[in-house]
Each structure stands twice: as C-alpha cells, then as structure tokens.
Amino acid sequence: MTDLDPYELKILRELQRDASQTTAQIAERVGLSSSPCWRRIDRLEREGYIKRRVALVDRKKVGLDAHVFAQVKLNAHGRANLDEFSAKIREFPEVLDCYVLMGSIDFLIRVVAADIEAYEKFFFEKLSQLPGVQELNSIVALSEIKATTELPI
C-alpha cells in the first residue's frame, strides 16, 4: 500500500478520527511513547501524508441547510477551456468539491447554501454564467446517510 509502518497507519487513523488529540493521547492509543509518536507525526506531515489539520463544522448549525450536487456539461468550445472553468469554480466558497468526470457530464460539484432560494441565486447569478457551460443539472440532497472524511487505511 505505502511505505508506512503499522504504527504510522494507526497514527493516521487516530488523527482522522480526532486531530485535536495530543501527541501523548495518540501515542497511548497506538502503543508508542510520546517522542517516537511525535517524530512519526512530524514525518507524516513533512512528507505530505497529512495535508493539514482542520475542524469539521456542522453546516446546518451555521445555517447552510441546502446541500446540492450539480452536474455540469460544457459545450465543445468549453472543453478546450477546462482550466478556465476550473479556476472560476475554485473562487466560489459555496462549492465544497469539484470533480472532473469521464462520460456525458464534465464536472460534478457539491454546493452548500443557506436554503434553496440561496442556491437558486447562486445557480442563476454565478454557476450558469460560467464560460462554456452548456447544461446544468441540480440534485438536491434530502438527507445525509453517511458523510466521512476518514480514509479506509
């Protein structure tokens, strides 16, 4: 899988579960003393296994009740400008994720907004105005069954 030893894999699992733990807490959970655990965490960060540590905010508690997936199809001219579309989509804080797809749809984006009316405004004033957009299909998520950031390592 990787060049990681079993302790490093355990450390990554612990950090994915709760990155606010102290090194001592992680060390205890993975079966190491603090110093070797800290050295491993430091190496994992330096080598890019750990991109960053963040707090996961509950979107509903901060008033972002609408969760929408949008499928974007670019016109033939737009396909030549994938970089331009990609750069523009990165500017929108409402867009949490954006993926380039193979097949009949070019991009899948995940969007949050205060409510459907706010999404509608975003859709008409920003998303549909992007260069090369031929077709947009919005899919509103009714409820969340599973959402995780933990990779299966």
TrEMBL record:
The keyword Transferase does not apply. Keywords: DNA-binding, Transcription, Transcription regulation. GO terms for molecular function: sequence-specific DNA binding. Gene3D superfamilies: 3.30.70.920, Winged helix-like DNA-binding domain superfamily/Winged helix DNA-binding domain (1.10.10.10). The keyword Transcription applies. Residues 4-65 form the HTH asnC-type domain. GO terms for biological process: regulation of DNA-templated transcription; response to amino acid. GO terms for cellular component: cytosol. Pfam families: AsnC_trans_reg, HTH_24. PANTHER family: DNA-BINDING TRANSCRIPTIONAL ACTIVATOR DECR (PTHR30154:SF17), LEUCINE-RESPONSIVE REGULATORY PROTEIN (PTHR30154). This is Lrp/AsnC family transcriptional regulator. It comes from Novosphingobium pentaromativorans. The lineage of its organism: Bacteria, Pseudomonadati, Pseudomonadota, Alphaproteobacteria, Sphingomonadales.
